[in-house]
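CORE FACILITY INTAKE
Project code: CF-77B
Contact: R.S. (postdoc)
Sample description: multi-component assembly, two entities in total
Requested service: structural model of the whole complex
Turnaround: standard
Below are the sequence entries exactly as provided by the requester. Do not edit them.
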Amino acid sequence: MTQDDSGTKVSGFSDMTAAVTERPKQDEAKLRTPGIRIATVAAGDEAPTSLWGNRKLIALMVHRDFIGRYKGSLLGAFWPLINPIGHLVLYTFLFCIVLKVKFGGVDSTANFALYLMAGLLPWSCLAESLARSTTTILESPNLVKRVVFPLQILPVVLVVSSLMSELVAFSILFVATTFTLHKVNATILFLPLILTSQILFTGGLSCFLASLGVYIRDIRHLMALALSAWMYATPIVYPASALPENLRFLIYINPMAGIVTDYRRVLLEGNSPDWPVFASYTVVAVIAWVLGYGFFQKTKKSFADIM
Amino acid sequence: MTYEYKIELDNVSKRHNIYDRPIDRLKEVVFRNTRSYHREYWALRDMSVKFQNCTTAVLGPNGAGKSTILQLVAGVMQPTYGTVTVRGRVTAILELGAGFQPEYSGRENVLMNGMMLGISKEEMLERMDSIADFAEIGEFFDQPLKTYSSGMGVRLAFATAISVDPEVLLVDEALAVGDERFINKCHQKVWELQEKGTTIIVVTHNMRIVDRFCQRAVLVNEGRLIADGTVEEIKPLYEELMSQTDYKQKSFSTPVGTALIG
């Protein structure tokens, strides 16, 4: 085969009948070097790759996701409020009135509801992010196969979006707490610390599941079951002290248990976070983020091939 | 004509691994290097081609690897072997869309498209009116994309892709959907882009579009480069190839591969 740049290059038509399944002849050196794509653009034209560089795109998509979810529904913007309150009433009825679960030191129904909500809110944020992340890539084939899109922002958008719901509900909880306890705990200032760990933990797992969901489509069906099991292994509808001694280890291997307990401490009990516990789940959260995000970044190049 | 190549493919091969069952993909990850669970389909084989600074048509029968070339240049896929070099900002209209989200409105999609190319939100908002004008979709601009006809989707995709001053524009079959008037408008725009030195690659089976827009053509078949030259030189070869191609004769693995590479 010869080629001169202005002219025509023709190789015989005989090539065209080669069997499709035949492997092309590759020398050993080439077999070991995977293909690369080198892209250069003029300075200032680079598409942002970091999450921070894409913050406006994330904001646009979160806004779209958050608004779009309730758009067209009759009660519209009230749904982020109705859902947590509805769950609150349901669980309060079941665990406080029917099953008579008691949180240490408090026995009034109102207090039970507050304890429950403080646990339920971070949990819903995690559960929603994880459940949706398993399909988020599969649901956006256009972004995977047709454009170079910073796919890593897809799971991040889900996390931020469910975080928004959590923050809305947290403000209700804050108002309710102030009314019931007739005081504002200064320890509420520790909230951003716990929230940061929760975000990192949720984000890391979401990224991991978003990628895994592309390879193993069963993940999404498994998630409903896994999340139920995980929820009951977390002291949300019962106090940590209610766990029998031989199951107590669950509290220590489950970062959500520490996070939920610390939310209750700073919001309702006026205590600072349990620092050793805080340190442990923060370390786990950072590791989860680094590994989960890293895994996503490493695997995202092959998404287009798989889908 | 200048000879500074914006797009070069150097010995590029692209392999699709075809798994009969999804579990096989997982098995292969777990038992790495012990057994292979897939069949291979080579969408491209040792392809070396340089795209000149003009409008080039990629011609060939279905499943020849035309779309794979565009996907590699666009960067949505990685080559298995070889090097793909792209110099400049690339926008692509692949299979009647440009990475649009069906639930988003036209306006939101345009905004998102610009932002993922690294264009600021403000700059995109400034261009919004001219994009809406060019696309001529009227009130649909604020409706979800899923309510669009395929023609409207393509017009919006085209309007968006050319609005961001691409240095490389990839068009996959899209122009075939527009009506005569829209094609005339595109022709105008393509001329302007060519004046600016944009490299355009068009994949199409429509020879009228090739005659109108393209100066050069490359002919591919079964993942290999057959010929590379001016449209006048390639057209007879293409017609000869198409008259020879008998789809029934292809080996059994081809339909799977064809489905994969679209």
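Facility notes:
- The longest strand of chain B covers residues 38-51.
- Chain B is about 40% helix and 25% strand.
Invoice: internal transfer
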